[in-house]
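Escalation from tier 1.

The customer reports that the assembly of four entities below gives different structure tokens on two consecutive runs. Tier 1 could not reproduce it. I'm attaching the input and our single run for tier 2 to review.
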Amino acid sequence: MQDQPTEDQGTGDRDFVASLEKGLLVIEAFDASRPRLTLSDVAKLTGITRAAARRYLLTLTKLGYAESDGRYFSLTPRVLRLGYAYLSSASLSAQVQPFLERISEETGESSSAAILDSDDIVYIARSATRRIMSIGLGVGSRLPAHCTALGRAILAYQPEDGLKAYLQRVQLEARTPKTVTDKSAFQAALDATRAQGYAIVNEELEYGLRSIAVPVVQKNGRVTIALNLSGQAGRISAEEMEERFLPLLRSASDALRYML
Amino acid sequence: MQDQPTEDQGTGDRDFVASLEKGLLVIEAFDASRPRLTLSDVAKLTGITRAAARRYLLTLTKLGYAESDGRYFSLTPRVLRLGYAYLSSASLSAQVQPFLERISEETGESSSAAILDSDDIVYIARSATRRIMSIGLGVGSRLPAHCTALGRAILAYQPEDGLKAYLQRVQLEARTPKTVTDKSAFQAALDATRAQGYAIVNEELEYGLRSIAVPVVQKNGRVTIALNLSGQAGRISAEEMEERFLPLLRSASDALRYML
DNA sequence: ACGTATTGTTCGCTCTACGAACATTGAATC
DNA sequence: GATTCAATGTTCGTAGAGCGAACAATACGT
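Tier 1 run:
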């Protein structure tokens, strides 16, 4: 049982299917800036050989997840089944949605629910009233966690070790001049969030956008979801958010605690 | 409905990576009714052996697409990256969203955009005002194409051979007593849609739901997307839809033609 | 035209992924 | 509590799937 110091990967991991990893890598190679890719493009982007890229693309094509006009490959709507399997499987989305709609109806503002995936938040449900953000954000959209109220509301309640690791690796990239980029200031913001039980973020993600978010504490004490309300900074003051919006978010959060 | 694993006629399809197919199968095994699965469950659902199911689940776990408490496995939000790669890659979603929001704002009704995937429509963008449908429909949701306005608007403009094949295989399942289930009546509805350039569907999908949809004709002449507006049948007459809503949908459709 | 740079495809060999066999856990019966 | 049986989870020798170097085809510059 001598542990070979073979730094080469696959240290005898008989239970790891490398082909699956590569296949998923190929799917993720397609993004907004590269909707159509040639076989060689995929090989470069993923770091696998052209021969392998070809095999995976042909496989995806045969399975209906991709299509090709001979030279260029692109993904088909079928790949949505993969992501959507999660949404409906967790069924978080479906459970949260009614709460968001009620909140939006009462306030006339947009509300959302998101979860944390590594350093991003991912929207799992939305109820949008009017268009407030410059970019269209739907279910599945990602934003950096550090400059969003949703992100901070979740981050503040993460286990200490995970949070520490996050703080060390994260690049607090500025999205506006107001974005907090100093690590100790950021940590202070998280502490404040934890102390008061909610996060308010003013124009740190985008000009004119103010948002308030609360964590959803689950029965096991863990926090994986947060709810928010956002509106134009000019129209809604931070005080109004705390007075009018916070109670609504809190009651929704409390209700969800007993469902999840 | 389920695609058979394509019979490799001993042609020894050297370019097909079976491991990828099985891995994707494992991901799709998780759904609303089964959010958490054991290794054996997955084996049964997918038809692969337990040993293989274990390898794929462990691989997915190591890659962060799944997690496990030792016995039960579940998907993580990371799988959204797979489906979302398509949405943002196509970037249809982002391009269409602003149009929907404008339409919804002007009419006060819910609007959506969808594409066709085999016999279903898949929502790629939504702008919901109030909750009209009993089921929460978000981006990625599927509905049978035959009984929706969106589906008919796309189907009517499909190439003849593809449409013929669809008509032969489709089961016109009734969702309400009003659903058109007779094939020649259905074909007539498609012909009418093509003739007038839009589809109206009255309570064929769900009681009280009336919807109007127009195709988005792309520069190459093909139709892959449709836009719709829907509202309560009692509140909005078919005539009002044609008079007030149709022009809005048409102008959005025209604008999109030059973007896509 | 020619060279060459890049992309796409083949095919013999290797090591991955396979699954029967084995081990373990759980439930039911006496 | 012991015993059986059923069902789940894990191991490991081996077949054959997937690997990639080598080859072919195609685009591109001069």
